[in-house]
TrEMBL record:
GO molecular function: DNA binding; DNA-binding transcription factor activity
The keyword Transcription regulation appears for this protein: yes
Organism for this UniProt entry: Breznakiella homolactica
Source organism phylogeny: Bacteria, Pseudomonadati, Spirochaetota, Spirochaetia, Spirochaetales
One BP term from GO: negative regulation of DNA-templated transcription
Protein name: GntR family transcriptional regulator
């Protein structure tokens, strides 16, 4: 369907809220260069007509764009383009080569930091964790929950479980330089050599919604991973929930005698 010459990309039968569809469509149009930085968007009434929605719905979409720093709104004026949407690119390849996971570091012009929300020793009651880490009955694990921020804005929530027997006093001593991989290597002499990751698309829980400051219907990309030592023992089971509209994943495959393998 076209409105004023624009092909409307709204699916009213979708469970995804209309305002969120508009937000994504406006991001796509800005990325394609329909409007340049510092250029004005069409007025609220024009955009509402294009998308055939109320101005209230349209304003919800614009509010999300403003929250992300993509536009700036001024009273009585059309919104101004402030930045072109650019999703954070997270490389899945490097974890298999160096064992490096997310920590405080720079990604191009962006800086990733992590905040530890919870760190404790406990007995897990989740079968998935028992099976993944090959735990004995009542064997204790270290549980760590972190909030990852990109340029001080929440982008992911990470949860890690490690066998307590492999990392004694971890809960008391914490992380070295806020890095799990560095802590494993320097304090315990542990270097994972293999990582198995599984990706799912999920909706946020109430806790994730609040921590990530996301819209409730915004999808999360959930990566579940198991890290192994050279002798095959699992050292970490992890779950990382990424904001689906803020991140893009990258990996490289190389051809070998055994077929294609992932690498940097």
């Amino acid at each position: 369907m076209e409105k004023n010459g624009y092909s409307v990309a709204i699916n009213r039968d979708s469970p995804i809220p209309v305002y969120y569809q508009i937000e994504l469509d406006l991001k796509k149009r800005i990325t394609k260069g329909e409007w340049a930085i510092h250029q004005s968007l069409p007025s609220e009434s024009e955009l509402a007509t294009q998308y055939d929605v109320s101005r209230i719905t349209l304003r919800q979409a614009l509010a999300e764009l403003e929250k992300d720093g993509i536009i700036k709104k001024y009273r009585g004026k059309a919104a101004i383009i402030n930045a072109v949407p650019s999703p954070f690119v997270h490389d899945l390849s490097y974890t298999l080569v160096s064992g490096r996971r997310m920590t405080q570091e720079s990604y191009g012009k962006n800086t990733m930091t992590a905040k530890v929300l919870q760190l404790e020793r406990l007995v897990s009651t989740f079968p998935e964790i028992h099976e993944s880490l090959k735990l004995r009955d009542n064997e204790k694990v270290i549980y760590m929950k972190r909030l990852f921020l990109l340029d001080k804005k929440p982008i992911a929530i990470g949860k890690s479980w490690l066998p307590d027997s492999l990392v004694p006093k971890f809960a008391e001593d914490g992380l070295i330089d806020n890095s799990l991989s560095k802590t494993l290597v320097k304090r315990y002499g542990i270097t994972p050599v293999r990582v198995e990751d599984y990706l799912d698309v999920v909706r946020p829980t109430q806790s994730e919604y609040e921590l990530l400051r996301s819209t409730y219907d915004a999808p999360l990309i959930l990566i579940k991973g198991i890290s192994y030592l050279s002798d095959g023992r699992p050292v970490e089971y992890s779950q990382t929930a990424w904001l689906g509209d803020k991140v893009r994943f990258h990996f490289t495959l190389h051809h070998t005698d055994q077929g294609f393998v992932m690498g940097p």
